[in-house]
Amino acid sequence: MTAELVRGQNHTLPQTRLEIRVSAGSPVVAGATLGDERGTVRGAEWIAHPASHRVPGLEVSRQAAADHRLAVDLDALPGSVHRVTVLLALPLGPGQPARFGAVAAPFVAVTGLDGTEIATFTLTGLDTESAVSALELYRRQGVWKVRAVGQGYAAGLAGMLADQGVAEAAEVAASIQEAVASGLARSVTPPPRTPDGERVRHPAGPPASGDGGPAAPAPPDPALARSDPAPARTETSGGPVNYAHPRRQTSAPPPPPPTAPPAAPGQPAQPVAGDATGWSMDERLYNQIWGMFEDLARAVAAYRSAVDFAESRMDQELDRALSDPRSRIGGAGDRAREEARAKHDELTGRAREALERDLAQLAAESAVVEPALPAAYAGWGNPVWHGYRVPMEIPMALRIGDLHLPEGIGLRIPLLVRLPLERGIWVDSGRTASEAAAATPGDRLRTLAMETAVALAARLLAVYPADEFSVHVIDPAGSAAGPLAPLVDAGVLAGPPAAGAEGVSSVLAHLTRRVDLVQMAIRAGASDALPPDLDTAEQLLIVNDFPHGFDDRAVTQLRYLADEGPSVGVHLLMVADREDTRAYGPVLDPLWRSLLRITPVADDHLADPWVGHAWTYEPLRAPQGSRVLEQVLALVAAARRAGYR
What we know:
Helix content: 25-40%
Strand content: 15-25%
């Protein structure tokens, strides 16, 4: 029976292998400290946090998120550790809440590896605090217990760490927040959730059980393994611009009726395209893709956790065997080592079998989903593009690449971003991004980066109605004429690519003026007072080879567009090598963090929003010899000409 704790109450823990699950209304930083018998944290190496997510017996998330799962093995803690304190803190930065009183009360649960709740605690009564000691696991007379703490700190993470005796607490807190800011910048932003948006899931088979180890993924937890539905977005945090889809409902409908025959007993259900909540098929497919993304992230997390546990257990058993003098007599030590390795192989083999079942089920689901995708979600090689017609409505999302993990390298998950874009995109042309980038000549990599940007711009033009999206290009040195040819030849740009200082200044001034005017009209409630020459369509600015050709004023304008533009329909697509901007110092760091970084070659830099895996991103490319991109742009141009008559 679950113990529902109140502040100060404790409860005995029936096992030593645990998960601590955190649910909050907005992203929070989750960490933990190890304390001695007096509760003192002896050094930074006794703190698990996003910059150092693993200490002996403890593993936490590597980024801020609304949901967390912390893994705890009390038997693996150092002998001098008597207390584990779970910490929550609000991430710093623009747009982030500054106090817990402004967000929903966090909920913390201590569970077994199978998800069974042992004790829960809701952190109510918080106000000005920006950090809180949620609960602690402590050892008393050889027995481990959990106590609900709920001690908040208005001084934030630094004050909380100082209270636990951490030397240089302010510096440690600053390093944690820096790691969190970097994690938020590289994380794929999930769509908002609604209470009714639970995905229809089909388990791959019964989970394997092991002796003390998480040999298979636990059953989905409804509070955490929830899909990401697609409600209408009425306002963004950047400004009160209504981007609600005119025909999209604001609440999730019931799950769709099954369209496949039920599976035989003991067999996994047959996957069906669109088998998720949503009013339209596009919404169902969108939710299904995000559900597959989450399923793969959690399945791999369970596998990696099981392997880590098996290795930790084997190391402990080997250490005990080697430290016992009796094991040196009569081959007892050799038998102990063989038994430890055999147990390790059994646990890892069982975990691999469970992972293979999950991968097979997801691969089968992908095989039926991929052919059913609409153009906005489909790769360039999908036959749906052969029947392409310029749409009359804006889709809810756009595919900008594929993601995969090493454990399931043959399984590709489409990376979908919501439309209108909530933040700009940066195509990294630097050679230090990955091994693939380092092996590519610099000139070739810059060309590939610009081709990636052009392909993204073409997809955006293709999925918007003909008169609702405009593209501007800044190419200061005129070095991107080749990659830009499809856009220029089709005549779909708002004007010729801007070159030279005068061209850069003109385009930036035009878009800055648009942002200013729309913001003023919104604040005044006078949208009908906008100048007649103002283009009210969504705007995309492609910037090649930044910061070449940019003076200080132009850099300031670009930062302004990155910060204020998305809320009023002006978006950035930058092609740049961050190393080229080092001369500006840290002044441009907020710019890079505000953009979603992608690469023109495979690179494992994107993180999922659930467990923080490093996913390998691959850009979308048209099949070799295909002219699908040019054909699509020609249809867009023809639709525009027909609309202007």
